[in-house]
Design goal:
Distance between the termini: 17 Å
Strand content: 25-35%
CATH class of the largest domain: Mainly Beta
Largest sheet: 5 strands, mixed
Helix content: 25-40%
Number of strands: 11
CATH topology of the largest domain: PH-domain like
Number of helices: 3
Order of helices and strands: EEEEEEEEEHEHHE
Strand order of the largest sheet: 7-6-5-10-11
Length: 197
C-alpha cells in the first residue's frame, strides 16, 4: 500500500497495513481535520482537538528501519501511523518518503491551526531510562565475559561474545540514541525519529 496525494479535494492521504492479518489504515488530511479509516471503523479528528503527539523509532525483526507516530485526542482511539506496511507473510514495505511527507504536512497544519498539542519524541521516560540502565549493564557483562574468555585463552569463545557485543551495541545503541525522551516544536521535527524522505 503506497500513499500518495489525492487529486479530488483531499490533499494528503497515507495508507499502511500495520499488521499482516488486519485491515489497512488510511489517514487523510483535509482542511482542519484528520480522517482515519480501517475496515469498518472510521472517524474524524479536528486538528485543534489533538492533545498529544509522539514520534518514535520502532524497529521490528522484520523491519529494522521503522518509525511510528502516535496521536491522542478526546473521543477518539489512540492512532498509530507507521512508516512501513505489510506486503506478504515474509515482506514489509518501507514507506519512508510518503510517511515523512505526510507527518511533515500534519505538523505544518497543526502549527497553522495553533493546536494546543504536546509534541513528544522518543520513548516514554519511565520505559527509556530503566531500559538504558539494563542495556549498559548487559553490555558491561558481555565485555567482562569476553575479557575472561581471553584470559582463559578461549579465543573462539571471546570472538563469539565480542561479535555478539558489537551487534548488541550497534542495534541497541541506535535504538536508545534515536529514542531519547524529549519535546519539540512542530516546526522543528527531530530528525532522529523521522526517516529520510
Amino acid at each position: 500500500m503506497s500513499p500518495d496525494r489525492a487529486s479530488t479535494g483531499t490533499p494528503f492521504v497515507y495508507v499502511c497495513r500495520p499488521s499482516l492479518l488486519g485491515a489497512p489504515w488510511e489517514f487523510s488530511l483535509a482542511d482542519d481535520n484528520l480522517k482515519w479509516a480501517s475496515g469498518r471503523k472510521a472517524g474524524q479528528i479536528s486538528l485543534r482537538s489533538i492533545r498529544r503527539l509522539r514520534l518514535s523509532y520502532r524497529p521490528t525483526s522484520m523491519q529494522s528501519h521503522r518509525f511510528m507516530t502516535e496521536l491522542w485526542a478526546p473521543d477518539a482511539p489512540k492512532l498509530k501511523i507507521l512508516s512501513s506496511s505489510w506486503k506478504s507473510m515474509v515482506e514489509q514495505e518501507r514507506l519512508d518518503r510518503n510517511y515523512a511527507d505526510f507527518i511533515g504536512e500534519l505538523h505544518r497544519r497543526l502549527a497553522a491551526a495553533a493546536a494546543p498539542a504536546r509534541f513528544e519524541c522518543g520513548s516514554h521516560p519511565l520505559l527509556y531510562w530503566p531500559g538504558l540502565i539494563v542495556f549498559v549493564g548487559v553490555a558491561l557483562a558481555l565485555a567482562w565475559l569476553s575479557a575472561r574468555a581471553l584470559q582463559a585463552d578461549a579465543k573462539a569463545g571471546a570472538a563469539f561474545v565480542g561479535a555478539f557485543l558489537a551487534l548488541f551495541l550497534w542495534q541497541g545503541g541506535n535504538f536508545f540514541r534515536r529514542n531519547r525522551p524529549g519535546r519539540y516544536r512542530p516546526e522543528a521535527i527531530p530528525p532522529a525519529v523521522m526517516p529520510r524522505g
